[in-house]
């Protein structure tokens, strides 16, 4: 995102719309997102949306060469049930 637009919630709003489409229109059971551990802003977006990360899901990206500093990735998950529960809570 262009620096002038950081910190305004746009990324979270867009990601929330993508989750809504995936769960409510496409009928998916789970959505995942990933980034490198040091990308704290991306991780904050995922966490803001209620996605959760487990060290057991960490992985080496298959397109990144061995030994590269961006090889390791963290994976965040959100289930359809958790999404629907958060939507119900937001409406109450
Ligand atoms: C990833 C990226 C898009 C996240 O951008 P971001 O600005 O941190 O995220 P958002 O647009 O959701 O904004 C969140 C911030 O806006 C604030 N905000 C203001 N109004 C808001 C609103 N109405 N709703 C939500 N958040 C709001 C939040 O409090 C948060 O502030 P904080 O960063 O001080 O905690 C950005 O860091 C980026 O472009 N990075 C480079 C590319 C990259 O990393 N891509 C992803 C690879 S995996």
Q: Could you write a compact summary of the structure shown?
A:
This protein is α+β, with helices and mostly antiparallel strands and 92 residues long. The chain has helices at 10-25, 40-48, 80-91; strands at residues 30-35, 52-53, 59-60, 72-79. It has a single domain, classed as Aminopeptidase (3-Layer(aba) Sandwich).
SS field, number of helical segments: 3
What structural class do helix, strand and pairing data support?
alpha+beta
Bound molecules: coenzyme A
One letter per element, helices H and strands E, the order comes to HEHEEEH
Mean pLDDT: 97
Give me the count of strands: 4
Radius of gyration: 15 Å
Largest sheet: 4 strands, antiparallel
Total number of distinct structural domains: 1
Identify the CATH architecture: 3-Layer(aba) Sandwich
Helix content: 40-55%
Shape: globular
Give the CATH level 1 class.
Alpha Beta
Distance between the termini: 33 Å
Model description:
The chain has about 90 residues and is of the alpha+beta class. It has helices spanning about 10-25, 40-50, 80-90, and strands at about 30-35, 50-55, 60, 70-80. Strands 1, 2, 3 and 4 form a four-stranded antiparallel beta sheet that branches. The longest helix has 16 residues, at about 10-25. The model has no long low-confidence stretch (mean pLDDT about 95). Bound molecules: coenzyme A (COA). Coenzyme A binds next to α1 and α2.
């Amino acid at each position: 995102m262009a620096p002038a637009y950081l910190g305004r919630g746009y990324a979270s709003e867009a990601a929330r719309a993508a989750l809504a489409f995936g769960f409510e229109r496409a009928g998916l059971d789970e959505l995942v997102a990933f980034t490198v551990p040091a990308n704290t802003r991306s991780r904050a977006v995922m966490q803001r949306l209620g996605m959760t990360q487990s060290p057991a899901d960490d992985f080496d990206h298959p397109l990144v060469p061995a030994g590269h500093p961006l090889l390791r990735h963290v994976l965040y998950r959100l289930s359809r049930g958790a999404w629907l529960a958060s939507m119900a809570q937001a409406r109450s």
